[in-house]
Amino acid sequence: MATTNSDTADSADAAGSHATESSTASADGTTIPTSHLSANMFGTTTEQGPGPATSSMPDLKRKATDPELKIITIDSHYDLTLIVGTPGSLGGQAAFRVNKGSLRHANDIWEEMLTGAWAEKSQSEIAFPDDVPWAFVQILHRAHMKMDKLSTTMNLAEMSALAVITDKYNLVKLVRMVVDLKGWLAGVRYSVWRKWPAEASFQEWAFITHVLQIESDYEYLVNRLAVEVEVDEKDVSFFHTNSTKKTKIRSDLPDRILGE
């Protein structure tokens, strides 16, 4: 993924400590297995409506802090710091300095969080411990109109992580335009998706295009899976990725793939 020049910023946790700042989308360069990213492909929901005036958004508690926390300034006029991820997790942890005004216009969930009855409204730091920093930063660059900071290419693991966040926070309007603008799916449309038989990755790409509401791509992938699906002697649905290997069809794919 694309990286940008780094600089030095004060730690969000202790005055006087410093960390090297980088806007690389991957905090540690780790490729995240897609099996960890979309366990609930077509049934993800988001929290609806505000809670009591003293309540917090669910699970927005910092579980731990990386002693070498990367601090990335998205907007030089920042008035809020987001701590994304958890030390030791697949995506690592990073801190992002953002502008509340840009963030609250990204979606209705964050607008409610920053202007409604949530406790986060008055906080200068908010934690997103269960999200992936190098996917989250793409959202933040888009929300702050830093289009030149967006990655030029995205692989399957990166697109899957981005789709999970998009689905979780209702960000499709924000993200879909960027996907088209940057051509993040252009390469796979005419390479991976044209392979026969279908690859195991087709199921992940179906999830991604479903979340991004790219209907033509989604229908193509689902129809390819439907054509190639088989049922073995144990009544388990699968498709072949080569002459000897079977890939089990995920239960959260549309029923028509399974012939139901």
Automatic annotation (TrEMBL):
<feature type="compositionally biased region" description="Polar residues">
    <location>
        <begin position="21"/>
        <end position="57"/>
    </location>
</feature>
<protein>
    <recommendedName>
        <fullName>BTB domain-containing protein</fullName>
    </recommendedName>
</protein>
<feature type="region of interest" description="Disordered">
    <location>
        <begin position="1"/>
        <end position="61"/>
    </location>
</feature>
<dbReference type="InterPro" id="IPR011333">
    <property type="entry name" value="SKP1/BTB/POZ_sf"/>
</dbReference>
<feature type="compositionally biased region" description="Low complexity">
    <location>
        <begin position="1"/>
        <end position="20"/>
    </location>
</feature>
